[in-house]
Write a structure and sequence with these properties.
Helix content: 40-55%
Shape: elongated
CATH architecture of the largest domain: Roll
Mean pLDDT: 78
Number of strands: 5
Oligomer: single chain
Structural class: alpha+beta
Length: 132
């Protein structure tokens, strides 16, 4: 029940409500629109802070190439396609070569396989190089 409904209900005659219901309405509290917006913004900023912290600790994935956001936060089950989409690929055409560097080892991925739906799982700390 929002604040406006509580105010309307509180104007009704007291004999319509038992003491418990009225007490529950008062105890529920009221959140204004600006308070709700502030809470939403605080939650968003907390999520951003956690994402940047995971990147700073080397738990993210780095993408080198034509992308808008080269640092992608790590989440369980992250795939190469998801990472490229999250990084916002800005190339003018499909990539010609994609390489994953994992613990010093190079893994080549055929971009055509990605476009046909092949799933390539990533690990925290992977570096992806995209060449057009």
């Amino acid at each position: 029940m929002n604040c406006y409904m509580k105010m309307a209900v509180s104007r009704l005659p007291m004999k319509l409500f038992s003491g418990g219901l009225l007490l529950a309405l008062v105890a529920a509290g009221c959140v204004t629109r600006s308070q709700a917006n502030a809470q939403a913004q605080a939650a968003y900023l907390a999520g951003q802070k956690a994402a940047f912290a995971s990147i700073a600790q080397g738990q993210g994935v780095v993408i080198v190439g034509p992308v808008q956001y080269p640092n992608v936060p790590w989440v369980e089950g992250l795939t190469l396609s998801q990472a490229i989409a999250t990084a916002n690929y800005t190339g003018r055409r499909n990539p010609k070569a994609i390489t994953i560097i994992r613990q010093g080892e190079e893994i080549s991925v055929n971009p055509r396989n990605l476009l046909s739906g092949h799933v390539v799982p990533l690990q925290p700390g992977d570096t992806i190089t995209i060449r057009e």
